[in-house]
Specification:
123 residues, mainly alpha, 3 helical TM bundles of succinate and fumarate reductases, 5 helices, 83% helix, 0% strand
Length: 123
Amino acid sequence: MRYLTDRKQAEGRGSAHAGAHHHWAMTVSSVALLVMVPVWVILFGRALGQDRAAVIETFGNPFVAILTALMLVVGMRHFAMGAQTMLEDYTRGSTRKALIIGVQCLAAVIAATGLFALARIAL
């Protein structure tokens, strides 16, 4: 008969020591979004429904352009981290890996497309 202590049974199955960092990153990005989203919605709402020249003028403003870029980058990073947490909780094996890679790629493509469009408008 083989006797294994509780510690020996748990060894190798413990934390990856990334949970605290992930939680802290999610907390920081959510606080940043908490401040940025209302301001951005107000600025975007003012441009909504206007003609092309007014929209280009609005997004040509450095403050609006920088805020929009930050919204895209921080928002998509927050989305990717949150989706990864959900996928880690509810999937396993190679399906998990493929879905996490897909979500990371989706977030990167959305951010890159938005930044490209913003650069075309603002410059």
